[in-house]
Amino acid sequence: MAKKNLEEVAQVLYLQGYNQKEIALKLGVSTVTMSKWKSNGEWDTIKTNLLTSKNKRLSELYDELAEFNRMIKDKKDYKVTTSKEADARRKLIKDISELERKYNIGQTISIGRDFSLFVKDIDFEFSQKAVTYFDSFINHQIDRQKWQKE
Length: 150
Prior knowledge:
The radius of gyration is 21 Å and the shape is elongated. It starts with a helix and ends in a 5-residue tail after the last helix. It folds into three domains: 1-41; 54-101; 104-150. Helices cover 81% and strands 0% of the residues. It is mainly alpha-helical. It is built from seven helices and no strands.
């Protein structure tokens, strides 16, 4: 496997909750290499962002919608909403709805990690195979969603 591919696999495993030593052993690289990859790739920041960014953005959108509604009610004739205001509110609600439905890789990684730890105690060999499939699935999802992040 090419060095870049190894690094990508290592990152996915790290985001799933494996520690550097476990990953190094699994991929046959040194712990020094793992440490460099983790540091240079800012994996801890990525891990935090994957798990919190969706909830943070949703919270911001809900706050924005609440403020928007307060602003409209503070108008003298708040019972009459202009078409611009109605359009802006619809767009905010649409953004919230889309984000609530949007696939979250961070949550999936967390669930996959928990599942693989659970299965590991029941059937270790199966868990190794499942982790391999899960890694491929996460890489596929990451590639698929790269264009959606912008």
